[in-house]
TrEMBL record:
Transmembrane spans: 46-67, 79-105, 152-172, 192-211, 223-248, 304-325, 331-357
SUPFAM superfamilies assigned: Proton glutamate symport protein
A GO term, aspect molecular function: symporter activity
Signal peptide range in chain numbering: 1-22
Cellular compartment(s): Cell membrane
Gene Ontology CC: plasma membrane
Keywords, comma-separated and alphabetical: Cell membrane, Membrane, Signal, Transmembrane, Transmembrane helix, Transport
Entry membrane topology: Multi-pass membrane protein
Main location: membrane
Protein name: Dicarboxylate/amino acid:cation symporter
Length: 425
């Protein structure tokens, strides 16, 4: 039985048990909540303690990998630039579209209020937004250790990126030792995360029991609302990727849609971009992408690029803010966009149950949004994860067609120059 299945069972069992206690044993509900609430809180705190060291190590090693890829050649560097632009676009789209969608179709008010009341976090507001000059200055940490201790994720992410870039400039021997150290830190923290996630069904059960006791089964409806909102944001990335393939990759719309059907069938069944790569390679060949391009770009995309990650993660954090009734100013959303686009690089190649926290934790902390609802949302992540995978594989093939068009243009320029030189002789 997979972790996601066990967590989902824990969620449903906790909600049902909590609702039963509230209905059948109301006199004992306060005592049961008093035991379950700290139990769930201990598990959540154990998960929180892994976020900062894990994200820092992932970003440093991710910068090293990206730098090595960029040094492989101009086409690789250009493709990395495209990845970066699309990741920022993904996060920015969700930062605008998710609040707009929630304004049109908000969460059920009573269920949202009950769910908010059930979380044991203080219902605080986001701190007052500083002036623009203070916001810019805050991105440069004067004391990185204090920043990490305070959980200030935005400056910590900046420091991790700059540190990783600086480390690529030192001697090869020292660079190998340094990146080897952070790679070891990453592996150790991943082991710790897996230990904490082993207990996830029990932690989610305890948190869900508290929620069920305070909200009844009304939480089920709001979780369905959440799944639809996040899935819409992720599927929007598939639509945007298709448009990019048509406009910049010069692929006819229906040809691209038909070619993607087998890829998306594999994506839905496996929920894995890596498992979908053979189908993506075959589809890219059918779309006329040269072997040298598809052989380089698709593996890079699977290894470094998840277009739906920033959009989906921003949607989750904005949804939680919506539940808590906190106001997200444009500056706070801008910070969230930058952090979401950056930490998505740290999530590639890690199981979705782990990335759910390694990516959402930093974004939530940077935007000042409570994290107590995330374990409950993890339990239903399987459904949005299907949409995430569909968007990712569509984007992977789309960027491959764009890279192929670049290659054709470069070949045409090279041919024209060769012909001009021949005529000059």
């Amino acid at each position: 039985m997979t972790l996601t299945t066990r967590v989902l069972i824990g969620l449903m069992a906790g909600l049902a048990a909590g609702a039963a206690v509230a209905s059948l044993l109301p006199a004992y509900a306060p005592q049961i909540i008093a035991v379950a609430e700290p139990a769930g809180g201990v598990w959540l705190d154990a998960l929180r303690m892994t976020i900062i060291p894990l994200v820092f190590a992932l970003l440093v090693t991710g910068v090293a990998q990206a730098a090595d890829t960029a040094r492989a050649g101009g086409d690789a560097a250009k493709t990395l630039g495209l990845f970066a632009v699309l990741l920022v676009l993904s996060a920015a789209f969700a930062a605008v579209a998710t609040p707009a969608l929630l304004a049109v179709w908000p969460a059920p008010a009573e269920a949202a209020q009950a769910l908010r009341a059930s979380a044991h976090a203080a219902q605080g507001e986001i701190p007052p937004t500083p002036a623009i000059e203070e916001m810019i200055k805050s991105f440069i940490p004067t004391n990185p250790v204090k920043v990490a201790a305070d959980g200030a994720m935005a400056p910590l992410v900046v420091f991790a990126l700059v540190f990783g870039l600086a480390a690529t400039r030192i001697s090869a021997e020292k660079r190998a030792s340094l990146f080897g150290f952070f790679d070891a830190v990453k592996d150790a923290m991943m082991t710790l995360v897996h230990w904490v996630l082993w207990a996830a069904p029990f932690g989610v059960f305890a948190l869900a029991l508290v929620t069920g006791a305070r909200t009844g089964l009304g939480a089920v409806g709001i979780l369905g609302h959440y799944v639809i909102i996040v899935s819409i944001m992720c599927l929007s990335m598939a639509v945007i990727a298709t448009i990019l393939a048509v406009v910049f990759g010069k692929v006819p719309l229906m040809a691209f849609v038909r070619a993607m059907i087998p890829v998306e069938a594999v994506a839905i069944s496996t929920q894995s971009s890596l498992a979908s790569m053979p189908a993506m390679l075959d589809t890219a060949q059918k779309l006329g992408v040269p072997e040298k391009v598809r052989g380089m770009v698709l593996p890079m995309a699977v290894a470094l690029f998840r277009m739906t990650s920033p959009a989906g993660n921003m949607a989750v954090v904005i949804y939680v803010a919506h539940i808590y009734g906190v106001h997200l100013t444009p500056l706070v959303l801008m910070v969230g966009v930058l952090v979401a686009a950056t930490v998505s690089l740290a999530a590639v190649g890690i199981a979705s149950a782990v990335t759910f926290f390694t990516t959402l934790g930093p974004i939530s902390m940077a935007m000042g949004v409570p994290m107590e609802l995330l374990p409950l949302l993890l339990a239903v992540e399987t459904l949005p994860d299907i949409s995430r995978t569909i968007g990712n594989v569509t984007a992977d093939v789309a960027v491959t067609t764009i890279a192929a068009e670049w290659s054709l243009e470069e070949d045409a320029e090279d041919l024209a120059q060769a012909q001009a030189q021949a005529q000059a002789r």
